[in-house]
Amino acid sequence: MKINTLSGRFLLLTTIFVVLAEVLILLPGLANFREDYLLTRLERAQIASLALLTTDQMIEPDLEQELLNNAGVYNVVLRRDAVRQLVLSSPIPQPIADTYDLRESTFWTRVRDALSVLADPENHVIRVIGDPVQKGGLVIEVTLATGPMRIAMIEYGLRLLSLSAIVSGITAFLLFWLVRRLMVVPIKRVVAHMAAYAEAPEDARRIIAPEASIEELRVAEDALASMQRQLTAALKQKERLAQLGQAVAKISHDLRNILTTAQLFADRMEGSDDPVVQRAAPKLMSSIGRAVNLCETTLAFGRAEEPPPSLCRFPLAALVQEVTESEQPPADAAQIDFVTDVPPALEIRADREQLYRVLSNLVRNARQAIEATGKPGTIEIGAGEEPEGWWIRVQDTGPGLPERAREHLFQPFSGGVKKGGTGLGLAISAELIRGHGGRLDLVRTDADGTEFKMHLPREFAIASQD
């Protein structure tokens, strides 16, 4: 099992917490064991001293030594009626190293003293003071060796560790198994579904079927299933659009050839002496030219080979004038006024032809939107310079964009503004502006009109200079 997996890390954390629990159990246990050990020695010493008191302080030395050995002490001092009396005694092998008063001990002092005994392997003699049991006196004192107490503490600690380790191990195993069963296995199932879906996202049979019993995992599976369904539907739509795009490209190619032939014949019509033909020929040429341009635009978009911008510095006002002149509505159409707010001295650095296509697309969409209402309107083109670069604004007084067009405004074949439109104009315009390192934004669209704004960065222009 790898440590960087969820199971491995959970096992590591479980082990750490089990060890911490062992320490938290062991330290108080050893402290209490030492306390009980000393209290037991005091109790045995008191019993031995009472046995001596019943004999009027007359006892054989061998019996006295046996009583001390059974109590596990060297000397016993019992204070009764404010008189300190050495009841039992034997030779002390070494000086007393320390004195402990069990009447004043606290939890932390007991833990500290227990650790000090375990840390010191030397055998010392200590004095222990405590209260006699059953009010058999005021104070009882004993002297004893720390060696046997340390051995007993070690044996007790090992037994406690063994028992707690078994209990903790069983608890950790059950906890690890439950967590793995309730969390890790369902997560692995989700991951397996994701991997299987990634191999064939168009296959709807690979969409995960939510079945987790845990609420959080069930929510995650529901979200994943929803995302997979949306992605599968989008991929199928993209596939259909790709097939449709190929068909449109083929049709546009053949239609462009037909229109080119028609354009040649229309060009010859301009030399006719018929006044009607002379008036109709320019409009026919303009219509055929727009149709050819639409075919070429469709083919260029289908190839996805839009050339990189050829940057040059030019006055923007002249370009805007060309666009407004080419987009003048027919005489029988609704009255549309073109308003330009472009400083005559403003020069920008961009691809002139590509920027012309972008402005032409935006102005044409605005003109068609106003013409669809049958009412007069205004199209305004403004521009200016800012520290980061330049901005160009195109706004109209049309009816605004429909909700369907706003959702997929810059997506080909999805963001058509007018009925029957392909949506290629705005998609290509946004792509051309991105090619300059800028962006095309929809600022607003409502019942009072629509406003687009494009930003062309200065840094891109400077970096592109030779």
From TrEMBL:
This is histidine kinase. One of its GO terms (molecular function) is phosphorelay sensor kinase activity. It comes from the Bacteria. Residues 250-460 form the Histidine kinase domain. Pfam families: HATPase_c, HisKA. The chain crosses the membrane at residues 12-31, 156-179. Gene3D superfamilies: 1.10.287.130, Histidine kinase-like ATPase, C-terminal domain. It comes from Paenirhodobacter ferrireducens. SMART domains: HATPase_c, HisKA. The keyword Chloroplast does not apply. Its EC number is 2.7.13.3. PROSITE patterns: HIS_KIN. InterPro entries: HATPase_C_sf, HATPase_dom, His_kinase_dom, HisK_dim/P_dom, HisK_dim/P_sf, Sensor_HK_Regulatory, Sig_transdc_His_kin-like_C. It catalyses: ATP + protein L-histidine = ADP + protein N-phospho-L-histidine. Residues 217-244 form a coiled coil. The keyword Ribosomal protein does not apply. Keywords: Coiled coil, Kinase, Membrane, Phosphoprotein, Transferase, Transmembrane, Transmembrane helix, Two-component regulatory system.
